[in-house]
Amino acid sequence: MPESKANGLSQHSRGQRGGSRSRATGIHRTRRFASRTRRACLVASLVFLAACGPRAAQTGGKTESAFAPIAPEAADLWDRQTTENADILETIVKDFNALHPGLPVKIVQSGNYGDIYRKTTAAIKARTLPAMAVAYGNMTVEYAQEGAVADLGSFIRDPERGLTDADLADFFPAVLEQNRYPQFGGATLSWPYTKAVLVMYFNTRVTTAAGLSAPPATWDEFVEQCRAIKAKTGKRAICLDVDASTLDAMIFSRGGEIVKDGRVSFLSPQTLAMLEMLQVLFKEDLAYQNTPRTFGDQTAFGANEVAFAFRPSSSLPYFKLVMEGNEGWGVARIPQADPAKPATVLYGAN
Question: Does the model's pTM come out above 0.90?
């Protein structure tokens, strides 16, 4: 699955310093990026495909097949990063290549995740592969079933170029666990890349005008604050980006699950409570839906038209951009049913 539950997010913080880390099962800490060039080929990648790796995962009677490298002169990384992220990745790879003679890493911009999935699937059928490609977990499983994914265990444990215990401690356990696949004997078949958790951005210019001094900690408080904002400012409180991961996070934050005992549990009390809350928000004109696949909610937030936005922690620099700095806004964990047992959704590609 491309996402999972992340527990124990810190309450909130203001400006650029986001409160988006989980207790022990959340997102990747970044304090060791000074040593990133030594491990760029591992950290900056996702799925090591069998044309490059030492051994493909053994799956369903299939063993490693003979795949040819699609670019023998370089270790191609099929990626989707754009703008600042693409520039940062380009710098990491450039530094890595300068320090490590031999087969260079080459970034190949290959469209969005769907495009890369289709391209990789076609490459597997053609028996020619890049060294690496970004992928969600379900995509990795499909590739591994064809014997096209290398087990990263030998890379991670390599005494010279692998990761130390201190390096591994720089990742929250849930992020690493998401890349171990029990159907393949617990093999590490991918590596964390664009991970994020859903958080709540709040506009203090709007909330202060409504007489509110702190972001809502619970869903009941959230609804009451939305009502106060509408009553005192005339503004709707949130432009809601309707997304499967957002709904999942709302269910997790109420103590619910999406799948329980192997069965989908969309009729759970937590799910029904979430849907009833959304019904209240829209019936009372406290919220409106963001146009799909746009960032209208961020634009409205920057124009002080709404008080709240639910977006990934990775969106923090974009909120800083629309708010023109660190003033007038903050970041908090999403509201909870029980703040003592907080949870949100962990998602993003490997």
Answer: no
